[in-house]
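Consider the following assembly input.
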Amino acid sequence: GNSVTQMEGPVTLSEEAFLTINCTYTATGYPSLFWYVQYPGEGLQLLLKATKADDKGSNKGFEATYRKETTSFHLEKGSVQVSDSAVYFCALSAFNTNAGKSTFGDGTTLTVKP
Amino acid sequence: NAGVTQTPKFQVLKTGQSMTLQCAQDMNHEYMSWYRQDPGMGLRLIHYSVGAGITDQGEVPNGYNVSRSTTEDFPLRLLSAAPSQTSVYFCASSDGQSSYNEQFFGPGTRLTVL
């Protein structure tokens, strides 16, 4: 079956540090890949996505590139801010299925200190 | 648009009680899903629906029932609550039948079963 493995947290960084959160996946075919962010007390919201190999998703300074050869979709940001403190989820939606059946990673908690 | 709404935000039940978690969306999305979020376990799919009158089981359906009489509403019923159902529950919706489409999440219901 499909699975998503995320870098274990929690991750604590100082403001302006570089962020990488690793995500690898197992799926048949060509899934779509997503990063969602969950701020404290809220539901998940889409951060970025990529739907085919070598696509780069980007939003709010975050980037992730769909690497089929390594089955990875690592999240990066060059300079984090305190406001980026949240839980980040990597997810996949298998080809020819609806995103409503997405598979999620366990989430990585990021804390950014001033 | 209100997006995806969920009620209640918080609920405490005693073992054996029943209740319904409400979910509604105003985006005319065909697909709706229920997830539970437990510490260190990411999001797990409980039930999902591909349209009014059509539902199916996800990864952890036991102890939960759903129905979908309208496009807008997708209630989740706990027939006889157990402490193992203590969790945060998220409803989500997505548009169309493509794996490319992201999900839109509600704010969640935090349920405690004593």
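The two ends of chain A are 41 Å apart (CA to CA). Ask yourself how this observation constrains the way the partners meet.
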